[in-house]
Amino acid sequence: MGVMTVSTRVRPEDLAVVAETRGHGLDMDQSKQNGGREDTMKPMEVVLAALGGCITMVALARAPKEGLDIRDLRLGMEGEYSAAGGFRMIRMTARLRSSSPEDRLVEFFHDVERVCPVSNSLKARIELEVVREQ
Question: What does the pLDDT look like over 25-64, one tens digit per residue?
Fold first, then answer.
């Protein structure tokens, strides 16, 4: 089991949050009603993006091994959520070109979702420890 680290900080000029890891950055903002500018993704949109990205990467890696033809893959991620409870349901719509049979593609995407680490993290009960540094 590996360990991943990401740090976040508040950008003073506009109070957006910047997440950084391995030399890469991602800016996030709140809705206008909560004081944000809405010129970046919101954290819950980043969660949907991470899920879609993970499923796409797993699908592209596995398709050739399973003899499936997948071209021009695009996923639409839609989540029903509340601020207090998080996501209640996430719906994924797969758009792609393929000469493979439809029933195999449907089964394939169900299998991909089942092995996707982001999907499994969202469905798991994760222990969250909060530590305050002095």
Answer: 999 998 888 888 888 999 999 999 999 999 999 999 999 9
- In DSSP terms, 77 is beta-bridged to 92
φ, ψ (nearest 5 deg) of residue 43: -55, -40
Q: Residue 36 in contact with residue 16, Cβ under 8 Å?
A: yes
pTM for the model: 0.91
Nearest to 40 by CA among 31, 48, 49: 31
| Neighbour count for residue 121 (Cβ, 10 Å) | 13
- In this structure, whether the domain defined by 42-128 belongs to CATH 3.90.70.10 is answered with no
Domain residue extents for the chain: 1-40, 42-128
Contact between 33 and 23 (Cβ < 8 Å): no
